[in-house]
Amino acid sequence: MKYEIKALDKKAKSATMETVHGTVETPLFMNVGTVAAIKGAVSTDDLKEIGCQVELSNTYHLHVRTGDKLIKEFGGLHEFMHWDRPILTDSGGFQVFSLAKLRKIKEEGVNFNSHIDGRKIFMGPEESMQIQSNLGSTIAMAFDECPPALAERKYIEASVARTTRWLQRCKTEMERLNSLEDTINKEQLLFAINQGGILDDIRIAHAKEISEMDLDGYAIGGLAVGESHEEMYHILDVTVEHLPQNKPTYLMGVGTPINILEAVERGVDFFDCVYPSRNGRHGHVYTNHGKLNLFNKKFELDKRPIEEGCNCPACRSYSRGYIRHLLKANEMLGMRLCVLHNLYFYNTMMSEIRTAIREGRYTEYKNNKIRTMLEG
């Protein structure tokens, strides 16, 4: 991997990142395809058309349903889903702690029951790395515990200490797997995850500790899980400066367009979130003048596209009134068009962000973007 910062505008950074699966430009938004597919009938060819640079899939979901060993038989996720650009796989840690039933945490890892069929599964750092190696993703995430943001200090301290020990085991296992002859992607990258709830001192100490391990990238996890936006921005203010600036910085599971704009200003350059696809499937679409609910009756006779000037597949050909009709009739095409529009909106916004940073006008761009979205 080669990560090179091309421009800095105060703390906002724009970089290029070369990987075995191609070069990407940051800041970027990873389009979330949890089970190797974007919900809403969006294909990988669609992803290229709407400007997606990195697709994100999930270790937990692919392990409990379909199976990583089966996907390895296809040559890994890239071959399985017909995608030749970078893929990041989430370690499964967040899902183990948020979805799994009857979980039991111990030093070795986590015993839990699948949320799908109840079968007993064990996952620890080595198992997560092995699954991600079978998937052959470009970037693998370290296996961590994601404590509730508002958990008590004593719990968070113990959790973060265990996450650090697990990170070392992830690193050791990744190095071993990348050396094996039958490994699909011998250049698989490993990103660490910073945790600590909303406790400044724990976040900072953990950021310093994991930075010394010299990994390929650094993520900030455990945010957007119950704390306020102001608390999240504060944690970014105090944490990002203690992570290596010359490595990618990834804010996990965030978020709204405004969240992203604020986080970029604080030095973050990787993002992912289910909002654009999830909201799209419910008829909620993003525009530069705020979010629209296309189920609203006022759009029944609206012949305009979702947003004037938008070049997404939906806006090029279809009216708000027609898309509303599809949604009301429960036709899959309606959801598909809304998801395509939302992902295009996010990917286009990231392109605008990169340009603004490289032209030294990011603060102006951010303020104008937020103002127009809030004013409607």
TrEMBL record:
Transmembrane segments: none annotated. Zn(2+) binds at C310, C312, C315, H341. Pathway: tRNA modification; tRNA-queuosine biosynthesis. InterPro entries: ArchSynthase1/Queuine_TRR, TGT, TGT-like_sf, tRNA_ribo_trans-like. The active site is at D90, D272. One of its GO terms (cellular component) is cytosol. One of its GO terms (molecular function) is metal ion binding. Signal peptide: none annotated. Binds 1 zinc ion per subunit. Catalyzes the base-exchange of a guanine (G) residue with the queuine precursor 7-aminomethyl-7-deazaguanine (PreQ1) at position 34 (anticodon wobble position) in tRNAs with GU(N) anticodons (tRNA-Asp, -Asn, -His and -Tyr). Catalysis occurs through a double-displacement mechanism. The nucleophile active site attacks the C1' of nucleotide 34 to detach the guanine base from the RNA, forming a covalent enzyme-RNA intermediate. The proton acceptor active site deprotonates the incoming PreQ1, allowing a nucleophilic attack on the C1' of the ribose to form the product. NCBIfam families: Q_tRNA_tgt, tgt_general. This is Queuine tRNA-ribosyltransferase. It comes from Lachnoanaerobaculum saburreum.
